[in-house]
Structures are given as structure tokens and as C-alpha cells.
């Protein structure tokens, strides 16, 4: 008698889809997305452990994530906007996330800038943006600084980078200081149009045919 063997097979695990970035979602909702969210060809994933805890920062801060198409390279924005003030005693406040270009896009990061909005009469806000590759450890590629609404950057990203790790830090320099928002702007290299790629291919093919004829 031959004993039959039972072979159990399991279906491969399905990768969880990345949700679209909702308009005006609060920071706590963004941090709860294990796979982050996608806007255009950018995928944003929050790091809750490196981001300041507490309802004042997470529940009363909304994110604005959008992009503007541009023939010289699309411009993507990640903004944190306050609904109500924050206390000086809780400073500094940090927000950590990863931003990457979706597979198949063909683009790469080219520039990063930082800006902040500080109401009149509430000066004393310094926002820094540490830009890393690989993870949030080690020495950052660059640190941008925006003081009382000034512009930080642009930082020219080394060629070919498609993933950045960001650590934004807001520091209150006095008790009267307040800020309304800070904005991270990412510019990318332009993606060649399909017609341009086809033209390059035909140009290369034409050159090859020409060389073949000359050899013949």
C-alpha cells in the first residue's frame, strides 16, 4: 500500500496597494498608513517613531501634498499646515518621512527647497530640513534652513537618486514665536516624451543603417 502525500500550496502574498494621498489629511492619519500614499509618481511614507508624538502636533496639523506638471521637470510639494498654535515648551517638533519616485517613472530628483510661513509679530521660528539617502542615520546629504519665513535651498540632488529620507525640525527660539506652515518642494528631472524616445530610437536606427550601407 502506497501512502498518499498531501501537498499544501499557498498563494503568494499580494502586495498591498498604496492609497492616493487624500486632500488635507491630518498628520496622524498619514502616519497610520503603513504603505504611505501616492501623488503623481511620488510615494510618501511617514516615520511615526521619529515624528513628534502628541495630539497638538499630529491632530492639529494637516498635510498638503500635490504636484505641478512642468516640461522642465514636475514640481512636487509636501506641506504641513497648523490649525492652532504650538507651545514653546514642546519645541523642537519633528516630522520624518520618506519620499520616493514610483517604479517606471523614469525620473530622478534634481532639487529640494524648504520654505516656512511665520505670521507678523511671531518671529523666532527656525525650520531645518535634513535630507538623507538610505535611511535617517549617518550624515545627511544636506541641511536646509528656513528662518522666520526665509527660503532654504535649493539643494541640487546628486544625479540618479530616486529615494530621499526627510527629517523636518521646527524650533521655537522664544515664547512668542509661532508658525503657520512649512513646505518641502521637490523638483525632478524631466521624463522624455514617448515621441522623443521614439525619435531617438529611429535616429539610432538610421545611423546604424547608414553605417551598414557604407560598409556594404
UniProtKB/TrEMBL annotation:
InterPro entries: Ice-binding_C
Pfam families (alphabetical): PEP-CTERM
Record domain Ice-binding protein C-terminal: where: 190-208
Superkingdom to which the source organism belongs: Bacteria
NCBIfam families for the chain: PEP_CTERM
Protein name according to UniProt: Ice-binding protein C-terminal domain-containing protein
Species of provenance: Microcystis aeruginosa NIES-2519
